[in-house]
Amino acid sequence: MTLFQTILFIVFLFSLQPSASVEICRVSCGNQLVRFPFRLSSQPDRCGYPRFNLSCKDQAQTVLSLPFSGEFNVVHIDYLFQNIWLNDPDHCTPKRLLHGLNLSSTPFDLLYPRSFTFFNCSAAASTQLHQAKYISCLSGTNFSVVALPADRLDSSASLSTSCLEIATVLVPFSWTGWSNLGNGIMLTWNEPNCLRCENGAGNCMFKSETGLDVGCSGGFTNGMFLFCS
Ligand SMILES: *[C@@H]1O[C@H](CO)[C@@H](O)[C@H](O)[C@H]1NC(C)=O
Ligand SMILES: *[C@@H]1O[C@H](CO)[C@@H](O)[C@H](O)[C@H]1NC(C)=O
Ligand SMILES: *[C@@H]1O[C@H](CO)[C@@H](O)[C@H](O)[C@H]1NC(C)=O
Ligand SMILES: *[C@@H]1O[C@H](CO)[C@@H](O)[C@H](O)[C@H]1NC(C)=O
Fold this sequence. Notes:
With 229 residues, this protein is of the alpha+beta class. Helix content is 18%, strand content 34%. The protein has 3 domains: 20-112 and 178-191, no CATH class; 113-172; 194-229, no CATH class. A 7-stranded mixed sheet has the order 3-4-5-6-7-13-8, with no helix packed on it. Strands 10-11-9-12 form a 4-stranded antiparallel sheet. It is elongated.
C-alpha cells in the first residue's frame, strides 16, 4: 500500500466506526425498532440511556417495566417526538390507571395529563351519562364503570345518586383507548433530548465512552429539518 492508500484506509475505518456502533445498538423486537435512548436489556449498557431498558418477550412483544406499576406492552415508540405508547398486556389500561400509575424513578411523564373520576353505576344509570366514557373491561352484567373528566362533574350531579365514586386519577388526555384496545396510554420523556438530532435525521448517541452527554452523528447538521424552537 502506498502512504496515500494507507491514509485512505484509516479514514475509511474511522468513518465506519460510529455507524458500526449504531448498527450494533439497533435491534428489532417484533415490528418495533429499539434504538437509542432505548435498548433491550440483553444489549450492552451503553446502547441506551439509563432506565430506558426494555425487554423482548417471545421475540415479538416489546415490554417496558415500570418500577412501581409493573409491566406494559410497548405499542409504539415515536423517536421523533419522544413519546412512547403503552398498553396493558391484559387489554384493560383503565384498570392499571385506577391502581395508580406511579412514574417515580422513571424518566417518563404522562402526556397531557387530565383528571378523570371513575364511577361504578347501576346498569340503568349509565345509559343516561352521555359525556361519560364507558369502560367495558371493568363493567359487568348489572353494573357499569364509567369515567368523566373531573372538571365536568358539576354538570352531572345526578351521578352521585345512582353511582358510587371509585377514584379520581390522572390519565393522559391523549388517551383515546377507552374502549378500543389499540392505543393505551402515551408517555413522554425530556431527558435525553434527541429532538434536534432526530429531526435532522441524525443518530442520537452518547458523546463519549463515559458520562451521560448525548450528541448527534450524521444527519442534516445544518438543521434543514429542525423545528422552529
Ligand atoms: C433495566 O436495567 C436495570 C439496571 O441495569 C435492571 O435492574 C432492570 O431489571 C432492567 N429492566 C429490565 C426490564 O430488564
Ligand atoms: C410511588 O411508589 C413509591 C413506592 O411505593 C412511593 O414511595 C412513592 O411515593 C410513589 N409515588 C407517587 C407519586 O405516588
Ligand atoms: C362495581 O360494583 C359491582 C357490584 O356492586 C362490584 O361487583 C364491582 O366489583 C364494582 N367494580 C368496581 C371497579 O368497583
Ligand atoms: C343481574 O340482575 C338480575 C336481576 O336483578 C339478576 O337476576 C342476575 O342474577 C344479576 N346478574 C349478576 C351477574 O349479578
